[in-house]
Amino acid sequence: MPARLEVQADHATAYQWQRSTDGGATWADIAGATSASYTTPATQLADSAQQLRVQVAGTDGSVTSSVATVTVKAWVATVLATTGVTYSRPYQLALDASGTQLYVAMGNNGSVYQIDTASGSGTQVASGTVFNSPFGLALAGDGTLYVSEQNRISKVAPGATTATPWVGAYGNLFVADLENKRVRKVAADGTTSTLAGDGTQAYRDGVGTAAQLARPQGLVLSRDGSTLYDSDTDSPCLRKIDVASATVSTVLGDCAGGNAGAGVVDGTAATPARLGYAYGLATDARNNVFLTQAWDGVARVVTPAGEVSTLRDGTGTALSFNFPIGIAAAPDGTVYVGASNGNQIYRLTLAP
Fold it and tell me: What angle do CA 279, 284, 287 make, to 5 degrees?
């Protein structure tokens, strides 16, 4: 994750941020870091103990700020111990606003479970319904759960024992129409329209149906609802759609590169970083986008500045999962990952 530092100074005319890697014995200017604020690249474990400061020049002379020391925490992954849950290929995950209730779609046994993240106690959602290969989940603000099945969407009202076909009446619902290579928008009155994609499996940015997508699968809205992120499952890149204008653009990755352009390489577009074939997406309160690369067995995070890093343990080794698909981010920073082939849910937290 990057870190942002900012200084306030009266009558300042110039700034120069500096870095020390030897405990403050020597300092080096950071190229291009010449404003009142500085955002670091995505930090790695090796960056811990680095020190940062800024030299400020102004009409009244110059001054050097206090030193800030970088502390980078590793991710710790533990299996979420549950009771009352029958695992069968967990697919997508969804969390409620509090982060205490986790919903899991079990693709192979037609069930959806609600799990209390504190106790691990699980109950089957709409136990009177057998879903047809449930995959995607979306939780509305009123507690209604939407479940994407094969060729239909069902909804489960809070406390209901059965699901019903969804025909509108809440708000806009965005659907990844995977085989038709489109993202659909279903309005509250049930009217369906194409938000993006022309049905051709390709990688063209553009507006609405002038854009082309490669089997969109994972979708997630930014916290303010203005941007829809899309994991084009058959392209190693992350796309985004401006909801108001339907403009599709590429955030990161080599969309057209196929296997040659895929990988697990951290960095930015200029590095260049590489993404694999992503499935699940989630956003956190800081507008970071978390994603799973199922075939690589890893989870990663893309910052608002477009820098990707892989979630790693205290040794710097990437956390490994058995075909991860679902991912969800809680308000307290906890991340949940569903290992589909491993039939497990992992809880990821930052080390103390």
Answer: 95
291: exposed, middle or buried (Cβ count in 10 Å: 0-12, 13-18, 19+): buried
Amino acid at 344: Q
Query: What is the Cα–Cα distance from 67 to 231, expressed in whole angstroms?
Result: 40
Residues 150, 205: one domain? yes
C-beta of residue 44 within 8 angstroms of C-beta of residue 316: yes
Measured between alpha carbons, how far is 206 from 309 in angstroms, rounded to an integer? 27
Q: Are residues 196 and 148 in the same domain?
A: yes
If one counts every other C-beta atom within 10 angstroms of the C-beta of residue 272, the result is 13
- Choose the final residue of a domain: 50, 70, 90: 70
Task: Report the DSSP pairing between strands 61-64 and 308-310.
Answer: unpaired
pLDDT block averages, 10 residues each, the chain of length 352: 88 96 97 95 87 96 96 96 97 97 97 98 96 95 93 92 78 90 90 95 96 95 95 94 97 91 91 93 95 97 93 95 98 97 97 92
Which residue, of 28, 53, 70, is where some domain finishes? Answer: 70
Q: Do 131 and 29 share a structural domain? A: no
Residue 76 CA neighbour count, 13 Å, CB half = 7
Whether 30 and 81 share a structural domain: no
Q: Are residues 155 and 43 in the same domain?
A: no
Number of domains in the chain: 2
Is there a single domain that holds both residue 42 and residue 189? no
pLDDT of amino acid 169: 52
Which residues constitute the domain of residue 297?
Answer: 75-350
Q: Of 161, 193, 187, nearest to 173 (Cα)?
A: 187
Q: How far is CA 111 from CA 95, 124, 258, 270, 351, in A?
A: 17, 7, 34, 43, 33
**Separation of alpha carbons 106 and 131, rounded Å:** 9
Grouping H, G, I as helix, E, B as strand and the rest as coil, residue 172 is coil
